């Protein structure tokens, strides 16, 4: 109602010119441990509904949880990579609320004694208002804690929610999968960059988690889920505004859109003298807007108390240090190193990252290509193909070794750029390795003088005026004859040799 | 109450003359039975049949069992006989029958917690205690009555009606493990298993005149024990002798990787301690806070005699004050309900057990609410509400938080006391068994039954109740409580065995021989036909 009415009244640019946004992010990550958080069931995605369950993750009477050591270690890895302090003693707590997909009607989580606290993640966003100038932000991390995931409800009926459902089905396969929650402190001072800061933070976090090998971080499958808190305060005001929490934000693009839309909606409310209601809102992927969920002001009391079925987690300092020692090179440091090694610009690197091509380029270089070639092939030909089919670069049926081989074929003069594109096309079409495609399609450049000389003579005969210009010293005109020879040879001629032959004949 | 049951009428012990072989078998201790079975003097099947016969004869009045598993009990007994025939070395309790409290999950029997809310639920897994008992060759006769979800001190909170005290059928057998205590005291089984959250093993043992032990918290696994209060619940043995209790204690104890709160340490040498039976040189502390006003005179008289007896046996008696014990009861009635309010949330009609209101007109939330309203009894509802309130935002610090601080102070009282003495002693209960119905409408009066037992639950230390005579004014058993430090469970057995030996000698026989009453019950006979499993309660 008022939501929709006020929606388009304030443009984003107008909103951020008069209000300071404050954002905060709560990110849930399903850990890729072999087994669930508190039992021995496989922590796998999918499977027949209710096939990956046991008395413990079903919360059957009498069953008891036992903490998964690997999940603790993974959480510490995340905490350490985010520069957090690892607690001497952390404790699980029960978060009590009734819901059919919660086997015990309480969730084992961490409350006032989380495993990791007080860290940060550095990110860089590019400010379009300042010529894509890189702007660093330090996003401070309040806590990283561990909990168990719930089951999955499917509400059958018109609403798709539990209210108004004809019936509901519950799959407990997901129940008990270890879930890490990473909570930022409020991020101030982002201004118009707020949506981009939120998006970049989640992207950076995703890369970090992937590098740590603790999760498959697939947002579309829900193994990385994001809640975005947004509030506005009039520019220069000292007090923060009332925040909303937007859930169901399931892609990087949606993170930015959710922040943007909340900023506009809240600005419109404030402009109209209304107040922002502290509530949970749902993000709608289709409209790009949010709609109200449960109101936090009448939210239930979770009655947290220490989980009496579990002893506190007390990681020894030796354990913490051995986990720290095992940390891989983190994405920020790696990017800085690669940029240096490859001699690419900040913007080139940003483009590679946004395309998800960083690892592919690194592997292509490792397979023998030059950084410039690797960058060129992945960002041009292959990115176009991926975008056309809506696939990820990494999902294309071509390996970095294939790409490196194509670059090598060009380098050694076996094919030219135009033929190389055809080679790639052939590899993507499943015609085999680059060499097999070259053979299969007969794509080898013709540089044999006998074959070329005939074509050159034909071209000279067919274009006497051009030949005359060249004879009189206008060497640049040779291009037209080269083009004619290329055309006659189906693009397979070695263009530089053709040029030499033409100039030789007409000198 | 049954029309035939008059106050004062007791459940006669099986004929002691020994003319009937079956009644002789039901009078034997677990240690004697195991030895006889291992030695081939009697088959495990015959022993099981004798006890099934006694249940047949007596349980109509005692109502100790919610479910009798005659067929599977006989099968388990036969398996022991076969193993013996094959030359296997049998364990110290192989072939001995046992009454299992209906709070432990069993795959082959219903598990109800004496509540309607579990409906016809059949657990798909055995509790660790159940599993260990089966592995030890113990024969599970069936599941015993209890207060619903172990909340109570009389079994009157059972959804399936109270059990009765073999000493006086008009009185309660204690609770919550009252079914197991009635079965053991009524010679239906030589051994029983209970759980002790605030005294639920020791108090029923005391008022039924048998031995009951709360091991150190974490000494016996809670896996498969349907939780009442997780930080307090402790499975433990009930038996007619200290040695039998020790044998059973040892059989169910030991680290369990399925229970995070299970202690990863060697089981204290309780059987050796029960055989040692020597208190000379031990320092024994009497807790003044656990006696005096409000205690039945006969209880105090028998307790004081026990103190004198211990002194005469060579123990050094001192008084040790534990000033915070007076706050144990209120702290307990915040902590236990808080945990239970969360533990019992899962009974919502969504996955198993009772479901009410599922007629297509109610939402999931309403079905949950209707199910819980229909399935829980009044005491369970009272405690869920108490606990929900105590954990609520804004009240947590004042109630749950404060109670946890008291808990710490009580633990410190014990620690300080055990620096001065080896064990502490007190009466187990302020009174002897009370009449059925007397306290049913007065929760506070009911809660006082656990006054002396609760401190050891809050601190997690070991404690045992041993019969120390009959109160002169009502002729009912009095319990002596012996408390030892965490993981020093062997000490309570050592002291109890010494007292038991001296008292038995003084009396000239076991205390339970004193059960006298009109011969209102049929004499136990050997059943000649296999009975279908299922007996009493609604779970048949």
Radius of gyration of chain B: 22 Å
Q: Largest interface, by Cβ-Cβ below 8 angstroms: which chains and how many residues each?
A: A-B, 31 and 45 residues
Tally of contiguous helical segments of chain B: 17
Q: How many separate domains of chain B?
A: 1
Which residues of chain B form runs of ≥5 with pLDDT under 50? 517-540
Rg from Cα of chain A: 30 Å
Mean pLDDT of chain A: 90
Strand order of the largest sheet of chain B: 1-3-2-4-6-5-10-11-9-7-8
CATH architecture of chain B: Alpha-Beta Complex
Sheet of most strands of chain A: 9 strands, mixed
Q: Quote the CATH topology of chain B.
A: Amidase signature (AS) enzymes
Which percent range describes the beta-strand content of chain B? 5-15%
**Strand order, largest beta sheet of chain A:** 2-5-6-9-1-10-11-12-13
- Computed structural class of chain B: alpha/beta
């Amino acid at each position: 109602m008022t939501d929709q009415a006020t929606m388009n009244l304030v443009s984003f640019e107008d909103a951020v010119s008069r209000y300071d946004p404050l954002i905060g992010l709560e990110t849930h990550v399903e850990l890729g441990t072999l087994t669930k958080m508190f039992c021995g069931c496989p922590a796998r995605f999918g499977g027949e509904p209710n096939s990956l369950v046991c008395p413990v993750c079903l919360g059957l009477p009498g069953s008891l949880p036992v903490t998964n050591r690997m999940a603790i270690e993974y959480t510490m890895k995340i905490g350490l990579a985010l520069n957090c302090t690892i607690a001497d003693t952390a404790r699980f707590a029960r978060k009590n609320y009734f819901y059919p997909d919660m086997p015990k009607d309480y969730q084992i989580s961490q409350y006032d004694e989380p495993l990791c606290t007080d860290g940060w993640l550095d990110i860089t966003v590019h400010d379009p208002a300042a010529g894509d100038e890189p702007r660093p932000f330090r996003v401070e991390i309040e806590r990283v804690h561990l909990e168990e995931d719930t089951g999955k409800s499917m509400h059958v009926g018109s609403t798709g929610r539990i209210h108004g459902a004809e019936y509901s089905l519950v799959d407990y396969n997901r129940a008990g999968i270890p879930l890490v929650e990473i909570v930022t402190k409020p991020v101030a001072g982002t201004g118009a960059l707020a949506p981009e800061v939120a998006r970049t933070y989640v992207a950076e976090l995703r890369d970090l988690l992937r590098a740590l090998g603790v999760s498959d971080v697939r947002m579309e499958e829900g193994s990385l889920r994001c809640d975005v808190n947004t509030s506005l305060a009039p520019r220069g005001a000292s007090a923060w505004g009332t925040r909303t929490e937007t859930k169901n934000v399931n892609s990087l693009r949606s993170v930015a859109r959710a922040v943007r839309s909340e900023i506009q909606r809240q600005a419109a409310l404030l402009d109209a003298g209304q107040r922002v209601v502290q509530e949970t809102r749902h993000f709608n992927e289709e409209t790009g807007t949010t709609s109200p969920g449960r109101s936090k002001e009448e939210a239930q009391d979770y009655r947290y108390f220490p989980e009496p079925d579990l002893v506190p987690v007390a990681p020894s300092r030796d354990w913490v240090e051995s986990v720290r020692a095992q940390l891989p090179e983190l994405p920020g440091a790696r990017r800085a190193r690669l940029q240096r090694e490859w001699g690419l610009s900040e913007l080139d690197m940003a483009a590679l990252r946004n395309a998800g091509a960083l690892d592919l380029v690194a592997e292509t270089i490792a397979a023998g290509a030059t950084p410039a070639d690797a960058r060129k092939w992945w960002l041009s030909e292959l990115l176009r193909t991926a975008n056309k089919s809506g696939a990820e670069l990494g999902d294309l049926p071509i390996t970095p070794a294939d790409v490196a081989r194509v670059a090598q074929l060009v380098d050694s003069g076996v094919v030219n750029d135009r033929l190389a594109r055809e080679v790639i096309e052939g590899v993507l079409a499943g015609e085999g390795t680059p060499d097999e495609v070259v053979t299969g399609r007969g794509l080898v450049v013709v540089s044999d003088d006998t074959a070329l000389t005939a074509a050159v003579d034909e071209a000279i005969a067919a274009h006497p005026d051009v030949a005359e210009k060249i004879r009189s010293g206008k060497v640049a005109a040779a291009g037209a004859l080269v083009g004619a020879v290329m055309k006659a040879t189906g693009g397979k001629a070695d263009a530089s040799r053709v040029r030499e032959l033409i100039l030789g004949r007409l000198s | 109450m049954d029309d035939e049951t008059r106050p004062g009428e007791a459940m006669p012990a099986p004929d002691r003359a020994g003319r009937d072989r079956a009644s002789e078998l039901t009078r034997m201790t677990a240690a004697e039975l195991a030895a006889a079975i291992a030695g081939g003097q009697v088959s495990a099947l015959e022993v099981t049949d004798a006890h099934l016969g006694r249940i047949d004869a007596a349980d109509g009045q005692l109502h100790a069992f919610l479910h009798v598993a005659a067929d599977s009990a006989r099968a388990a007994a036969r398996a022991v006989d076969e193993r013996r025939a094959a030359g296997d070395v049998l364990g110290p309790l192989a072939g001995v029958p046992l009454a299992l409290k209906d709070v432990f999950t069993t795959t082959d029997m219903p598990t109800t917690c004496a509540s309607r809310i579990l409906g016809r639920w059949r657990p798909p897994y055995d509790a660790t205690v159940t599993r260990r008992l089966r592995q030890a060759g113990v024969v599970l006769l069936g599941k015993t009555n209890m207060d619903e979800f172990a909340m109570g001190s009389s079994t009157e909170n059972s959804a399936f009606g109270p059990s009765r005290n073999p000493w006086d059928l008009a009185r309660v057998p204690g609770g919550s493990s009252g079914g197991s205590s009635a079965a053991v005291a009524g010679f239906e089984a030589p051994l029983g298993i209970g759980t002790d959250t605030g005294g639920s093993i020791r108090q029923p043992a005391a008022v039924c005149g048998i031995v009951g032990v709360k091991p150190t918290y974490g000494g016996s696994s809670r896996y498969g024990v349907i939780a009442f209060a997780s930080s307090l619940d402790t499975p433990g043995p009930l038996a007619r002798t200290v040695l039998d209790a020790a044998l059973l204690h040892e059989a169910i104890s030991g680290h369990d990787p399925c229970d995070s709160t299970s202690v990863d340490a060697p089981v204290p040498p309780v059987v050796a301690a029960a055989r040692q039976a020597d208190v000379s040189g031990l320092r024994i502390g009497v807790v003044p806070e656990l006696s005096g006003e409000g205690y039945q005179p006969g209880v105090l008289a028998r307790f004081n005699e026990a103190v004198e007896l211990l002194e005469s046996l060579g123990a050094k008696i001192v008084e040790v004050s534990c000033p915070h014990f007076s706050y144990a009861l209120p702290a307990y009635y915040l902590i236990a309900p808080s945990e239970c309010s969360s533990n019992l949330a899962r009974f919502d009609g969504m996955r198993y057990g009772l479901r009410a209101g599922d007629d297509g007109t109610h939402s999931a939330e309403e079905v949950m609410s209707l199910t819980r309203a229909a399935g829980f009894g009044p005491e369970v509802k009272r405690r869920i509400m108490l606990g929900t309130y105590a954990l609520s935002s804004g009240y947590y610090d004042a109630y749950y938080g404060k109670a946890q601080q008291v808990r710490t102070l009580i633990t410190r009282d014990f620690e300080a006391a055990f620096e001065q003495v080896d064990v502490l002693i007190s009466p187990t209960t302020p009174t002897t068994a009370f009449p059925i119905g007397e306290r049913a409408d007065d929760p506070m009066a009911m809660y006082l039954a656990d006054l002396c037992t609760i401190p050891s639950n809050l601190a997690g230390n070991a404690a045992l109740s041993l019969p120390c005579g009959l109160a002169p004014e009502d002729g009912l058993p009095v319990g002596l409580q012996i408390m030892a430090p965490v993981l020093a469970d062997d000490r309570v057995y050592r002291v109890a065995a010494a007292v038991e030996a001296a008292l038995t000698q003084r009396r000239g026989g076991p205390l339970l021989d004193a059960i006298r009453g009109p011969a209102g019950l049929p004499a136990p006979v050997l059943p000649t036909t296999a009975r279908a499993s299922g007996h009493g309660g609604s779970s048949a």
